[in-house]
Amino acid sequence: MQEIERLIQLLARLPGLGPRSARRAALELIRKRESLMRPLAQAMAEAADAIRTCSTCGNLDVSDPCPICADPRRDDRAICVVEQVGDLWALERAAGFTGRYHVLGGVLSALDGVGPEDLTIGRLIDRVGPGKPVEEVILATNLTVDGQTTAHYITERLEGSGVTVTRLAHGVPVGGELDYLDDGTLSAALKARQALPGS
Amino acid sequence: MQEIERLIQLLARLPGLGPRSARRAALELIRKRESLMRPLAQAMAEAADAIRTCSTCGNLDVSDPCPICADPRRDDRAICVVEQVGDLWALERAAGFTGRYHVLGGVLSALDGVGPEDLTIGRLIDRVGPGKPVEEVILATNLTVDGQTTAHYITERLEGSGVTVTRLAHGVPVGGELDYLDDGTLSAALKARQALPGS
């Protein structure tokens, strides 16, 4: 039973699984020992061996530099700055951005004692310096207080570097219903309203 | 990226994780490669090697017979019949039952083509036969149509064997609010109402 309890405890540390659902997941794994538990154990061991942090942008992949940094077809003139690797993946799934990325590894937070030196902000400044092809830095940090503080701090650090600093548009999500939106988003969408073509 | 996609696909097969939360779980695992992903991979590999199905009751554990079947202090006179191993574990956590168990491995289902020979009903009958110490069989199958059909079938098969067949009480869950209960439970609780002591 010790082996099972340990499995449940480790599974419960995954986001989205509590103690109860970890137990159900463990049971499902044990039931499907050969078809699920062994392949998953092996996939994890292989991933743990293979995955590297890209020393340029901070992305996680099996090569360093990562495929995005190594791809010559991507646009060197724009860097999109995100908090976490998950944000980078989300933007790649949206497939609208053809430039490069920079993963901060978190946000500035006085409360959690996270300062600029704990993030990759220094490396970002290096990537943007004189003689570099970067023309635009897109700040795609989250719309939280810490995310916006971080964006503000980076904007200040980039002053005088000659690059244009932009942020993602805020507004009503596609498919979103006004009635269910929070006030902050609604008022941001109202402030950033756009003229319809031909009006 | 292939390693990560494979990891996400396997994680998404766990109950409680969809494609989106599997992606988040994979990211968390990759971030905590040494502290979470490797230990979990190892715990799974070890569990896959160690865990056996008890040939007496159908429980899953590292020994056969399982610790419950092997425990001489447990009461041989009662067998509690459950659908799945998870139900056995839930009853053990409730810690109110000191007898033995029998895991059916599912329920009879005409729709899914599950007949008596697909479950461990034959082995249950063998455990109850003449000369055996069993006096009571508690049917703890779920209160679904299939669960109740299975309970009914087992009751018929046990007729004439001399054992008492009982089922779990149905009623209002402890801490349950009537307002949120389904009608079936409420009417079952009303039918099974009990006199208060001294009334």
Would you give an account of this structure?
The structure is a homodimer. Chain A is of the alpha/beta class and about 200 residues long. Chain A has 2 domains: about 50 residues, Helicase, Ruva Protein, domain 3; about 100 residues, 3-Layer(aba) Sandwich (Dna Topoisomerase Vi A Subunit, Chain: A, domain 2), CATH 3.40.1360. In chain A, about 45% of the residues lie in helices and about 10% in strands. Chain A has a 4-stranded parallel beta sheet with strand order 4-3-5-6. Chain A has a two-stranded antiparallel sheet with strand order 1-2. In chain A, strand 5, helix 7 and strand 6 form a beta-alpha-beta unit. In chain A, helix 1 packs across helix 2. The mean pLDDT of chain A is about 90.
Give a brief description:
Chain A has 199 residues and is α/β, with parallel strands linked by helices.
Question: What would the keywords be for this entry?
Answer:
homodimer; 199 residues; alpha/beta; Helicase, Ruva Protein, domain 3; Dna Topoisomerase Vi A Subunit, Chain: A, domain 2; 2 domains; 4-stranded parallel β-sheet; two-stranded antiparallel sheet; 6 strands; 43% helix; globular
CATH topology of the largest domain in chain A: Dna Topoisomerase Vi A Subunit, Chain: A, domain 2
CATH class of the largest domain in chain A reads: Alpha Beta
Number of strands of chain A: 6
Q: Considering DSSP H and I runs of 4 or more, what fraction of the residues of chain A is helical?
A: 40-55%
